[in-house]
UniProtKB/TrEMBL annotation:
This is Ig-like domain-containing protein. SMART domains: BID_2. Residues 272-303 are annotated as: Disordered. Residues 195-268 form the BIG2 domain. The lineage of its organism: Bacteria, Bacillati, Bacillota, Erysipelotrichia, Erysipelotrichales. PROSITE patterns: PROKAR_LIPOPROTEIN. Residues 274-295 have a biased composition (Low complexity). It comes from Thomasclavelia ramosa.
């Protein structure tokens, strides 16, 4: 009787154990077709250590969030699920199968590795300058092309946009690169068509007296419109934007430049003559004064030691020259000297009386 009870107990125990095992194997945590994947998965060729967690969209009715993706571990955790994601490097074009693990079950998804990276264009200069009539093509452009798969010879280069190299203007164009997979990239650049460069001046030989000025005009064509004026001897003649001023006697050359073009102006500066009439008048005054003095009247002193009025004026400029000239003529007109000379020495002006 006791044996019968033992057998019955064992049968009941086995029933419960087998029932529990049946429920374990049917646990929804391990049922098939639980993982949902994105559709039409494309991976860019050349990508290393692909984040395969991003291809899983959900489990059952649970949507996978970014916070569920452990990208560094290639694992997804949500509720009581833990999905192990595969490692993958996209180093071969075509279709591939990725295998994901959930418990003892494996889930497969097909992905496609494609070249979806456009070529990289490195254009050294985004503005190209030509003169009317010059031929233009992509050979005028300084550029480099880089691509993750296609060789340089297999990349098609073209220029998009309308332009006319025979007509002045500014043209907005594009340099386009297309690789073997059909990926395109482009960069913008500007094509400027200018007149042919030229430089003309209205005078090439001039003669001036000290202190005189003359304005010379320059006419330029082409891209560069900046005109530079320089004197080869500023002690004789100075120039400021075409205005030429005679400083002291001698000859000098004014150089006019615009880009690579140059013209020259020959300048001859003559000394300014002293006022002979004034000197003659001063001499007569001195004689009259002497006569008045001998006859008992009052008059001026006889001109003696005129060198005591000699003076040096530092700095070479038209203003300094005018100051020295005014001083010299003032002494002559006052009657204390009969004549003067005004000479430059490269650093200033020496006034000497006689």
């Amino acid at each position: 009787m006791k044996k019968r009870y033992v057998v019955i107990f064992l049968l009941i125990l086995m029933f419960f154990i087998s029932g529990c095992q049946s429920e374990l194997f049917s646990d929804p945590n391990f049922s098939k077709d639980k993982i949902k994947f994105n559709s039409n998965i494309v991976i860019n060729y050349g990508e290393k250590n692909v984040d395969t967690t991003k291809f899983v969209s959900g489990i059952d009715d649970i949507k996978i969030k970014d916070s569920n993706r452990l990208k560094d571990e290639l694992r997804i955790t949500v509720d009581n699920y833990s999905i192990i994601c595969p490692e993958f490097d996209a180093d071969e074009l075509g279709k591939h199968v990725l295998v994901y693990s959930l418990g003892d079950y494996k889930y497969k998804v097909e992905v496609t590795v494609k070249d979806i990276t456009a070529p990289l264009i490195l254009l050294q200069n985004n503005e190209i300058d030509l003169t009317v009539g010059e031929k233009f093509s992509k050979k005028n452009l300084d550029y480099k092309i880089k691509d993750n798969l296609s060789k340089k010879k297999d990349i098609r280069i073209s220029i998009k946009g309308d332009y006319n190299s025979k007509k002045l203007g500014k043209y907005n164009l594009k340099l386009v690169a297309k690789d073997e997979a059909g990926n395109k990239s482009s960069v913008d650049f500007v094509l400027n068509i200018y007149e042919k460069a030229s430089l003309e001046i209205d005078k090439t030989n001039i003669s001036l007296n000290i202190g005189e000025t003359l304005l010379v005009s320059a006419k330029v064509k082409g891209k560069d419109q900046t005109v530079n004026w320089t004197s080869d001897n500023n002690t004789i003649v100075v120039v400021d934007n075409g205005k030429i001023t005679a400083v002291s006697p001698g000859t000098a050359i004014i150089r006019v430049t615009c880009g690579n073009l140059a013209k020259e102006i020959n300048v001859n500066v003559k000394a300014k003559e002293t006022n002979n009439n004034a000197n003659s008048q001063n001499s007569n005054n001195n004689k009259n004064n002497a006569n008045n003095s001998s006859s008992g009247g009052t008059g001026g002193n006889k001109v003696t030691n005129p060198s005591q009025y000699n003076k040096y004026f530092s700095e070479v400029s038209i203003a300094t020259y005018n100051e020295a000239l005014s001083y010299a003529e003032g002494k002559v007109n006052s009657g204390v000297v009969n004549s003067y000379s005004l000479m430059p020495d490269g650093k200033g002006y020496q006034v000497t009386f006689g």
